[in-house]
Task: structure prediction
Amino acid sequence: MLFVTTHRRLATIALAVGVLGLVGLAVYLRSVNRLEPILVKASLVERHDAEAMAYIVTYVIPFLSIPFNGLQQGIAQSIFFVVLGILYVNSNMIHINPMLNLAGYHLYGVTLEDGGTHSLIARHRIVRGQQIRAIKLADDILLEKGDEN
Result:
């Protein structure tokens, strides 16, 4: 709470960026849900939600304990988050997104009947052998298109 009282403007900007991220996610998911789904069958399913929590615990939470008392700390944290962002994207971890967890989505690793392995973002529990209506977001990323979508 000390950060909010001493750096009100910066705290407001951070909050606004977070809210903007959630709104952007909602707009993106609404727009891709208009796409025509494909029908796939999962022959192997692994839940990967723990990876998002590991990301938060490993990288974000330690920075909450660092005092933000000056320009040097701000620059150091900015450099860290830029490097972390580059590594995040280059390591193909962009789908391991804490915002998706906040929005009620779960991350699965699925192997399809045709042998392809994909990351599946879904609101519902996915089990082996299940037929899934999915939207292809990228080469190896699928989004479940549920009944409410």
About this structure: The first strand starts at residue 38 and ends at 47. The chain has one domain: 2-144. The beta strands are 38-47, 106-112, 117-122, 131-138, 141-144.
